[in-house]
Amino acid sequence: MAYICLILSGAALLINGLTLLGRVPGRDSGVFNVLIGSVQLVLCVAVAVSADGSLPALLAISGTFLFGLTYLYVGLDALAGLG
């Protein structure tokens, strides 16, 4: 699961970089960020549910969960034009 989320984070960083360079429209990258953030959050919740309270497993996914929240926020910000 960690490798999947790492690949998704790399793809989001690539798209965000291309957006900053003006190659990809901001609204398109917003949709991609919402998609990546949602997938990461769903995967983290699935791991947390299957961990049965195992503290090392929960600590291992905490960083990925925060990245998912960040990409979700950035995507919603780009779509809603908040900032």
Q: How far apart, in Å, are the first and last alpha carbons?
A: 32 Å
Helix content: over 70%
- Overall mean pLDDT: 92
Question: What is the overall shape?
Answer: elongated
Q: Which structural category fits the helices and strands?
A: mainly alpha
Largest sheet: none
**Assembly state of the chains shown:** single chain
- Beta-strand percentage range: under 5%
- Report the radius of gyration as a whole number of Å: 14 Å
State the order of secondary-structure elements, H for helix, E for strand.
HHH
* Number of strand segments: 0
Low-confidence stretches: none
Number of domains: 1
Summed up, the helix count is 3
Transmembrane segments: 31-50, 57-76
Family: Belongs to the AmiS/UreI family.
Keywords: Cell membrane, Membrane, Transmembrane, Transmembrane helix, Transport
GO cellular component, one term: plasma membrane
Give a verbal description of the structure:
This protein is an all-alpha fold and about 80 residues long. The chain has one domain. The protein has three helices and no strands. It has helices at about 1-20, 25-50, 55-80. The mean pLDDT is about 90.
Please outline the helices and strands.
Elements: H1 2-20, H2 26-50, H3 55-80
Helix pairs in contact: 1-2, 1-3, 2-3
Subcellular location: Cell membrane
Transmembrane segments: 31-50, 57-76
GO cellular component, one term: plasma membrane
Outline:
With 83 residues, the chain is mainly α.
Task: Provide keyphrases for this structure.
84% helix, 83 residues, mainly alpha
